[in-house]
Amino acid sequence: MNNLKVTGTQTIGSIQFTGIEGGFGEGKKAMLVKDIAEIHGREVKHINELINRNILRFKPSIDVIDLKVAVQDDHNLSSYGFTKMQIAKSPNLYLLSERGYAKLLKILEDDKAWEIYDQLVDNYFSMRKEQEFKIPKSTRDLTLLALQANEETNERLDDVESRITSFEENKLITSEDVGTIGRHVRNKVYQFANDRHLGKEAVSMLYQDLNSSVKQVFNVPNRGRIKDKDFQSVLEFIYSWEP
Questions:
Q1: How far apart are CA 114 and CA 108, in angstroms?
Q2: Domain identity same for 114 and 198
Q3: Backbone angles phi, psi at 173, to 5 degrees
Q4: What are 5-31's pLDDT values in tens digits?
């Protein structure tokens, strides 16, 4: 399995998975069942069961490879994105070729499966390893090449800017910030309770009320999911909070 290699994370539209080449032939694309399961919203064990029940339809080394058998070194298996628990507990760690994936889709038999398959065939399995490069032979060719390179650069910059904006918008607060919010909550509750000479039962209810208010106002399940851009607003909310 020395010809099997990970090419990095691949993204086709909204589909994200581990890109793998080899195993079924030099430069041939392949996909892990764990990624296929996630793409189709199924459990890995369910996909494995479908393959195992129809294993006679899948030709070894042509349609499917069981990495658990083919790769003996657990360290190598981890390089394909498997956790130690998955390596230890999964009876099969299947890798499918395009042909194997097509057979699996016949077993899945749903419209969504074929829609996804179309995207992967058009944009992943048919992807050439290297694009043919033509040496420019005239000033016009050089100009066109420069314009194309500039356009591609601008597209990549736009993509980077979009990713940065998305990251900044969705960045979560740090564990230190979570602790800061916790201290502000405690201080606010104790201050409120002391000013009104309230007992322990009332303090407990105030904690619950303030924590619930923070989660409701900022639409988060817990403090750790508060967005970094909302951090100061959360502190201001706690400061002005009234039960």
A1: 9
A2: no
A3: -70, 160
A4: 888 887 766 677 888 888 888 878 888
